[in-house]
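Tokens as discussed.
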């Protein structure tokens, strides 16, 4: 089985690389592939470094250009991806994937992807890789443990959701992508995942024990988006 993960940059490098998280994440993935023979495809976001550099660009350039801001974020994703590739060593034998449309096989047990081009986040790249590898489920790991019915920071009545269909989820995230957005799932990725009928599990990435349960197809804490 091939698992596809969209790994939020904010849990990999909230400001700088989180060594404790990266160690536990790598060890958990290694243990799973050793026990099962499964393969894991992961695409990583830019996290704190991406937002810091985008913020600097916007502060200096009054008429900032969204595609340029995206390219800055993409550069950060590629740095994070190179770190993950190095951490997995021989298990990740292929180069970092920067174009998800032409990859449907891997020579090792782990494949690491990064940002592709402006107009969307690495969530969309992960959806495309799920399509390429024929996966029916994708795991979205972020700093949010569950999707809420509304923004809990703005709506005191917002409630956590265990399951939501793509129609309702699209109402939550909208249709437009803005570089540096911090949403539970990218709107462009949402449209594509809905079109594919993909099932997305949204969960808190730092809960490593929960991640292990997700990989094992056991009960987990999070939100299932799309079909059952």
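Sequence:
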């Amino acid at each position: 089985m091939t698992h596809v993960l969209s790994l939020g940059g904010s849990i990999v490098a909230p400001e700088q690389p989180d060594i404790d998280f990266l160690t536990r994440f790598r060890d958990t993935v290694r243990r799973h592939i050793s026990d099962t023979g499964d393969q894991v495809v992961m695409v990583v976001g830019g996290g704190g470094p991406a937002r810091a550099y985008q913020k600097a660009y916007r502060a200096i350039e009054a008429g900032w250009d969204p595609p340029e801001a995206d390219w800055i974020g993409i550069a950060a994703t590629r740095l994070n991806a190179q770190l993950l590739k190095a951490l997995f060593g021989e298990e990740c034998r292929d180069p970092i994937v920067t174009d998800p449309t032409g990859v449907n096989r891997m020579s090792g047990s782990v494949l690491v992807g990064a940002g592709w081009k402006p107009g969307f986040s690495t969530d969309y790249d992960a959806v495309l890789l799920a399509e390429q590898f024929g996966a029916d489920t994708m795991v979205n790991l972020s700093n949010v443990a569950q999707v809420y019915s509304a923004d809990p920071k703005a709506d005191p009545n917002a409630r956590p959701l265990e399951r939501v269909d793509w129609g309702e989820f699209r109402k939550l995230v909208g249709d437009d992508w803005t570089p540096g957005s911090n949403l539970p799932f990218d709107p462009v990725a949402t449209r594509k995942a809905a079109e594919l009928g993909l099932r997305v599990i949204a969960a808190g990435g730092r809960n490593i024990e929960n991640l292990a349960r997700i990989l094992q197809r056991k009960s987990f804490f999070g939100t299932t988006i799309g079909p059952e």
